Amino acid sequence: MSEVTPQLVVDSTMPLNPVVSPDGRWVAYAVTTVGRKERPAGALWVVAADGSSPPRKLTAGTAKDSLPRWAPDSASIFFLSDRVERGTRQLHRISLDGGEAEALTTWKGGISGHLPLADAHLVAVVAADEPTEEDERRKAERDDAMVWGERVPYGRLRLLDLGTRELRVVDGLGDRHVAELAQRPDGGPLAVLSWAAPDLDPVDFTSELHVVDLERGKVRDLGRTELEASSPTWWKTGGTWHLAYLAVTPPGPVGGGAVFDVTVHETDDTGDHRNLTAGMTVCPSDLAQVTDGPPLALFADGLDTAIHRLDPGARRFQRISSVEGFAGSLTASRSGEVVAALASTAYEPKNVHAGPPAGRLVRLSDTRPELRAVRWGVQERLSYKASDGLDLDGLLILPAGKSRQDGPFPLVTLVHGGPYARYADEFNLAWFPSGQWLATAGYAVFLPNPRGGMGHGHAFAAAVAGRVGLEEWTDIVSGIDLLIADGVADPDRLGIGGGSHGGFMAAWAVGQTDRFKAALMGSGISDWGMLVATGELGTLEAGLGGSAGWEGPGPHPHDRLSPISFASKIRTPVLILHGEDDTNVPLGQATFFHRALRHFGAEHEFVVYPREGHSFQERNHQIDVLRRTRAWFGRWLGDPASDRAPAAEENPAPPKPRATPGGALS
Question: pTM of whole model > 0.70?
Fold first, then answer.
């Protein structure tokens, strides 16, 4: 059996962006590396949708080839690549038969989105304006003062004429940033989702839906969408066209995903944006447009995933099949008779699967065959009650080679991010400390799905609004207590960790109890008010923390929900990991927590990763995270391989924080 090393985890590939050809015969997808080295790279692959022939590599993978989109005749594929200029993506086209890819644009600043149109001579692209002479002068003179609202690089809708290679802007959208496109299946107008600016405004997160008639040059506004709108999808019933989209249920921003729908009248009336998933106890995650019928959708359903089809008469989604574990990135053929998605089960990583939507999806890609040579920890489904009687689920991964009868084990609880995310019954191995990474080192791992996450409907997701760290915390405790009572977890060797919202929960946990012997706070929140002030989601974070801080002199609701408020009580050793360039949860959150722990003399280690954002990309940093976190839990929970708890003398007093190479602090 193979050993699970950090290199095995990060020196691997993963499939992305599967898309079924319009005729349903083929699936194209991108494959990229997990850990980024010198230059990000990705290749395009194509495979027969029925699995009758093996996958075939279309591009070499020496550049970052991504976002494949089929031509209407299913004979070629359009995609974005930075092969001409590193870091600048241009539109390319390659034949289904392979050969040399053809560069179609040389737009300064690059192309951010594209959609081949029914008119085979045209492609809709999204690109910011090219730099003007004044822009170039300012750049040369280092006149780079940033004035809010000025010189915004709006992604504008443009049409590329494949014959002349001319790009012309589509008027009528003004200074709106084009986020997503979808053409009506009959070759008619475009649906356009737009934002006020390329980066979501941290105070006003409104987006708008438009219909763009390319023939008449007319733009109709269908009004504001609900929050975080995506995936515009056309469908027709009784001769009337509709547009559906995914968004967050009102009042938002807490409450989970929903499918909204608006009737596209012949007049300029905007109509109501109706929630088609109200009252459902599952959560939509993907929409797929079908030419000759209603849309298909993926729904997170507890630990599994289901495929639904919209019933046009009832205006409700109906389940037509189930997918074990995780499925995402749903795509459909023109007829809707073939779908493809990325899917993963407990011991199989994400791969491209395809088949009929009401039948079994067959695996088409095999990007990580080397993982089959590893003995993984047994992954179990858990179902239990919260302290208030709410039904909960989660996963338990036992140490590799062990059964429940071999317990109790040192237990590490890993809390997912979001909080609107979930643990599906999928393969849990990733560069951030994951279930199998720790299970193969001898730990039992608890992966809880507390309230606030997806997979159980709106009310379950909305339960944390203004209440983060309260009931969701006791949900996690209930699961841990269950595992202790069952003899799986050693109550004297408990650890907790997570990233983003999971990092918040780890920081919150150690301020509420001393029962954990070690904690990991990855890219986590320590102060909700400061996150409103500096995080890219701005005021949306007040929906979780309960206030922004500008409501008056305080105290504010978010103060009692912020881990920083409980720093004086922390006795658990904490490992803090954070990216220096994180804009989602800025570095100041970790720095604040680190300074508080220093002030109170709490055991901790603080590590900052240069050039990294909210999710780390560089290979060496990913390897460091894997090694460092195993070592941290090993130091405080003992060596699981020898089933030996740490002795007092094995835990010397920590050194004072010092600068380490690369700018990290430890």
Answer: yes
